[in-house]
């Protein structure tokens, strides 16, 4: 029953593969089911009661936050209360008390306000699985007019590298192998393949830097905070000769979630 969710008489295995790209996460129940599994895992880690009330804190991309906020909140905050399900054969009864939504990327900075308070202007670069989200902050205030979302996420990079390895060597490497090599971790494969993966990691980095410049941001003049799943790749493949201004790499993949939790905690404390 490991990673198995039981809900309304059906069984779902969580974490067995990558979710297909959806422009609208409310198009099916996949993210709702994954939210149940996430709640169960959080309650288990915190040794909290399995019958309880929770506030869900979640995020949406910068560029689509205003447009999608209402429908995504309704998607997570359904009339079915309390929510009854089993995860890994443990029964849960959870009442969702409220759903709070925040912009991805910017919320993570709640953990490190000194990074933005010390700079007049700073660029936030959130490299996710499918998109690279950009936003400039002036005097620590988000400039909504500068929001951009580029479809150049890490998944596209890894897929392209896997195809290039097949063409060049005939080998079918896995996503996890590619990711480990890009991040500089140990992986048992030939030196030729590792060099090929690292070369395309640099090419991916050059593409992102070029796309950011084409979007109207000058990384040689404005410091940047780079976060998300692709932050470690960029950190490893950016070179001195790129001549970039100050770069801060936030490589903790849980930074957004931690930011949402901290903000909700602050909101609750002020009431």
From TrEMBL:
Domain Actin homologue MreB-like C-terminal: 124-239
Pfam family, one: ALP_N
Transmembrane stretches, start-end: none
Cited InterPro entries: ALP_N, ATPase_NBD, MreB-like_C
Domain annotation Actin-like protein N-terminal: ranges: 17-106
Name assigned to this protein: Plasmid segregation actin-type ATPase ParM
């Amino acid at each position: 029953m490991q990673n198995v969710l039981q809900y309304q008489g059906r069984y779902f295995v969580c974490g067995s593969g990558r979710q297909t790209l959806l422009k609208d996460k409310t198009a099916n129940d996949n993210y709702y089911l994954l939210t149940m599994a996430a709640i169960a895992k959080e309650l288990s880690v915190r040794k909290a009661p399995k019958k309880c009330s929770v506030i869900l804190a979640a995020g949406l991309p910068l560029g689509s936050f205003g447009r999608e906020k209402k429908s995504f909140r309704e998607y997570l905050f359904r009339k079915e209360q309390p929510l009854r399900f089993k995860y890994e054969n443990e029964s849960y009864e959870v009442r969702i008390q409220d759903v709070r939504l925040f912009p991805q990327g910017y919320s993570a900075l709640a953990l490190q306000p000194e990074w933005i308070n010390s700079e007049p202007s700073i660029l936030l670069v959130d490299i996710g699985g499918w998109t690279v989200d950009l936003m400039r902050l002036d005097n620590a205030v988000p400039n909504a007019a500068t929001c951009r979302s580029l479809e150049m996420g890490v998944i596209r990079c890894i897929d392209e590298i896997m195809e290039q390895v097949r063409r060049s060597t005939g080998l079918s490497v896995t996503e996890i192998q590619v990711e480990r090599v890009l991040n500089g971790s140990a992986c048992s494969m030939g030196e030729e393949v590792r060099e090929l993966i690292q070369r395309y990691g640099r090419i991916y980095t050059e593409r992102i830097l070029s796309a950011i410049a084409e979007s109207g941001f000058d990384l040689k003049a404005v410091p940047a905070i780079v976060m998300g799943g692709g932050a470690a790749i960029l950190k490893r493949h950016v070179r001195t000769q790129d001549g970039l201004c100050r770069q801060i790499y936030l490589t903790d993949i849980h930074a957004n979630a931690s930011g949402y939790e901290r903000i909700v905690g602050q909101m609750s404390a002020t009431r």
